[in-house]
Amino acid sequence: MEQNALQKSILLYQEIDNSDGFYQCPVEAGCRSRMNVPFKCKTPELDEQFLKDAKALNMIQLKGHRLVGGIRASIYNAVTINETITLVKFMKEFRHKHSSPSAQSQIYLS
Question: Which of 4, 2, 27, 5 is nearest to 16 (CA)?
Fold first, then answer.
């Protein structure tokens, strides 16, 4: 279970950290949780669109804490690695759709 938790959190944090600022995690790398991955898009409007688009794909319960806002992926033990990969793929697609043309070309290089 510990290995699965580590693998899932690495997948999410890599997408956030490699997004050239499109996604931002407010938690320093050394203090990050393996179970709850908070992040924000580059604007609050994109946060709302992310949540709306995710919900349309049946990805629910992603809204961040009411005092903090943003997005929070809770990847507890019942969440599979494949489900986490699906979320990461969605994050990549969402970033591509809402990035500038120069940033879009970089997405496919990584």
Answer: 27
Residue 23: which H helix or E strand, with range?
strand 23-24
Residue where the block lists tokens 């990969």: 85
Q: What domains, with CATH codes, occur in the chain?
A: 2-107 (3.90.1150.10)
What is the pTM (predicted TM-score) of this model? 0.87
Report pLDDT digits (tens) over 58-81. 999 999 988 889 999 999 999 999
Q: Is 43 exposed, middle or buried (0-12, 13-18, 19+ CB in 10 A)?
A: exposed
Residue type, 26: P
Identity of the amino acid at 9: S
